Design the sequence.
């Protein structure tokens, strides 16, 4: 195997990757291009080690399968190393401040990925750290997933502009990042959600303005049938996110009419694809026949976490 280098510039032009809102539509397309180049090289078995000798510290205050493994494997494939740091075992679990943690970790590692509850914690970490900080999910946003999702849609549909993505379910972190990502990409993002579970008003307003600039659209519906009508992509996420476990019974009831099943997807375009960030709860937000059916691309989607994040790591840390 021969080591290869890709001609590249700093696409993001910023230290951190915290929210899709911080990226321009052009940044997103360039990152997707870089991800595709890195993916192709990896597929051909070519070594690409721009992060040789570099370490990513990964702080997890919530569970993870995809984010943890794809970042760790991604760092390894790029020639670097990743450290898993459990929030409860770090001194932050015993009250050391985020700011001190950021300053200390910056002495040892070349980048920090964090998954936590409050979005403000990630912003504070980024402010105090001298190394790049990547948001691996907060209660407010999941930008790495949204970027990987655009990569998947682009690969499967050959374009982004003009496509309609219908997100059925909770106006949560996933909805926020996807809404902004679709708006920046000139897509139509339609959410179907119960009235009390709309995305945050300010985020929706910002996304609507962004969509207008890019000939896209953001629409909010309480009727799932209306949201899903003629959709190219049908998307769902869990009804109860990490940290909301106590609300589970109330949520199961609130979302019962928002399940993605064969009668609901009959309103989408015939060639629709089904996506889900995973983990999924079959029988709740989606039925088995849809998520395990022929239109589902959820594992292709999961695979792309690796490739999209490698582009982020290279852009911020190489
Ligand atoms: N989609 C996603 O972020 O999965 P994990 O919670 O397993 O990381
Ligand atoms: N909304 C979900 C996404 C998991 C990847 C959660 O926050 O638990």
Sequence:
């Amino acid at each position: 195997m021969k080591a290869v280098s890709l001609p590249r510039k700093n696409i993001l032009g910023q230290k951190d990757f915290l929210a899709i809102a911080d990226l321009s539509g052009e940044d997103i397309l360039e990152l997707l291009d870089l991800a595709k180049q890195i993916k192709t090289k990896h597929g051909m078995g070519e070594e690409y080690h721009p992060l040789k000798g570099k370490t990513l510290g990964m702080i997890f205050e919530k569970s993870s399968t995809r984010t943890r493994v794809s970042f760790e494997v991604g760092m390894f494939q790029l020639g670097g190393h990743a450290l898993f740091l459990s929030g409860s075992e770090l001194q932050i679990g015993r009250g050391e401040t985020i700011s001190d943690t950021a300053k200390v970790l910056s002495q040892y590692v070349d980048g920090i990925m964090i998954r936590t509850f409050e979005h403000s914690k990630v912003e504070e970490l980024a402010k105090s750290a001298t190394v790049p900080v990547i948001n691996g999910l907060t209660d407010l946003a999941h930008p790495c997933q949204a970027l990987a999702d655009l990569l998947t849609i682009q690969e499967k549909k050959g374009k982004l502009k003009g496509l309609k993505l219908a997100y059925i379910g909770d106006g949560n972190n996933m909805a926020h990042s996807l809404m902004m990502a679709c708006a920046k990409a000139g897509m139509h993002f339609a959410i179907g959600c119960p009235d009390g579970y709309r995305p945050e008003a300010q985020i929706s307003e910002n996304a609507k303005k962004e969509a207008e600039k890019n000939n896209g659209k953001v629409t909010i519906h309480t009727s799932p049938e209306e949201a899903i009508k003629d959709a190219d992509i049908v998307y769902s996420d869990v009804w109860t996110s990490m940290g909301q476990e106590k609300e589970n019974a109330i949520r199961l009831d609130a979302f019962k009419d928002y399940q993605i099943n064969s009668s609901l997807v009959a309103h989408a375009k015939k060639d629709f694809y089904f996506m889900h960030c995973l983990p999924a709860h079959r029988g709740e937000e989606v039925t088995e026949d849809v998520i395990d059916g022929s239109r589902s691309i959820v594992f292709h989607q999961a695979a792309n976490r690796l490739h999209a994040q490698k582009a982020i790591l290279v852009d911020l840390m190489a």
